[in-house]
Amino acid sequence: MTKIDSRWYALVVLCAGMLMIVLDQTIVNVALPAIQTDLEFTPAGLAWVVNAYLIAYGGLLLLAGRLGDLIGHKRVFLIGLTVFTLASLLCGISFSPAMLIASRFIQGAGGAMSTAVTLGMIFTMFPKQEEQRRAIGIFSFVAAAGASIGLLLGGVLTQAISWHWIFFVNVPIGVVAVIAAIKLVPDSDGLGLTEGADVLGAGLIVSSVMLGVYTIVKAEEHGWVSAHTLGLGAVAVALLVAFVVRQRKAAKPLLPLRVFKSRNVTGSNIVQILMVAGMFGMFFLGTLYMQKVLQYDALQIGLAFLPVAVTIGAFSFSLAAKLNTRFGERNMLVTGMLLALAGLLWFTQAPVDGTYLVNLLPVMLLLGVGMGLCFPALMTLVMSGATADDAGLAGGLAQTTAQVGGALGLAVLVTTSTSRTVSQVAAGVPTAEALLSGFHLAFWISSALVAIALVLAVTVIRPVEVRADDPQPVLVH
């Protein structure tokens, strides 16, 4: 019997930690009505169960990734996983809105630390491109399919037991993952804090991203052209500009700007922002369409999204790596995005009396196959310009752009959808048709975002190949 390389066991541990955190981002959405009733949240206060997590998670990803390069990826991963697990316990036992919101913020910080370094660890653990493609395929399955699995699991736990268990379920998984990581995940010393201990730069980037995410998630409430949104957005941009200036002048910058010299790294991150903005918002509004128009319950919604997870898994685990090797990452990224775009366009035609087999299942299959093809390719392209010394930074940057894209897409799509629905109701249109009109507009915007990302993928991103004497992917100029 062939002995399995211990690195693959380590990959399982990394993905288990990642899955727990990805699940948490969607599993909470299903339980929000039960949480509101039990803890007596106001409608405005309830949004902070999600927002507190998003702000901490999105704001700390880049810093956590760089911290992993400096003090060791494994160390940061373990600290993050421990914080996330303990915060999950606090979330589960929360007896007041303030306690739950504070616990969610801590949970987001722990999630940022562990996920920011995961991609960098995979990159350094599997330097040969063929192995790297397989490993990234598995990672991509966890990252992409976890959202749909979370919807199903959230519905089951909330209906069968209580909302508390959507958090309690993380505790045993987290404990096992920490113990397994200590034993199985290889150590890395890191460069040392003296190589990038830019405290001022850290403060600027964390403040900028946190304020930016806050501004985005509150834009729906205040309006995109309000003084609140424009003012805070301007401050966030000013902080980001100050951070860039600081990095250019600092002797040992927190974020070496050389990482952006790679056309593939920069282009892939921009593509990811647009792609995630379109797809993440679609999943959220697709859930509302099933709930408010088709009258699906939480469990039915979870089951409806299950084909997405199944098809992503089928492609990510084995087929994606082989196809990337045969046809190249850029070609598979483009193919996957074309399929995903077809699924989004199909969703724009969903009727009031839609049926699952005709109006939803084709969408789920197209999105599942498309995401199963494009996300492994995108992850490889995002990391293609990274070195072992800045793998954590590159991974943290990739996670940050995905998070910002998701927050931006959700805010834009929810705002436009709600505005259309309100105007339709005011014009005397029946509620179900007014809701559908808002959803259709959002699905068209989602399609447009993915279409723009597709054009950029074709025109900006270059193919990657492997030299015979070098296992690392290199750009083809």
Protein model, in words:
There is one protein chain. Strands 1-2 form a two-stranded antiparallel ribbon. It folds into two domains: 6-197 and 252-464, Growth Hormone, Chain: A, CATH 1.20.1250; 198-251. It starts with 5 loop residues before the first helix and ends with a strand. α2 runs antiparallel to α8, α3 packs antiparallel against α4 (97-125) and α11 (298-327) crosses α13. The protein has 477 residues and is mostly helical. The longest helix has 36 residues, at 391-426. β1 and β2 (473-475) form a beta hairpin. The protein is built from 15 helices and two strands.
Give the SSE map.
Layout: H1 6-39, H2 43-71, H3 73-92, H4 97-125, H5 129-160, H6 165-168, H7 170-184, H8 199-222, H9 227-249, H10 263-293, H11 298-327, H12 329-347, H13 356-382, H14 391-426, H15 431-459, E1 464-466, E2 473-475
Antiparallel strand pairs: 1-2
Helix pairs in contact: 1-2, 1-4, 1-5, 1-7, 2-3, 2-4, 2-8, 2-14, 3-4, 3-7, 4-5, 4-14, 5-11, 5-13, 8-9, 8-14, 10-13, 10-14, 10-15, 11-12, 11-13, 12-13, 12-15, 14-15
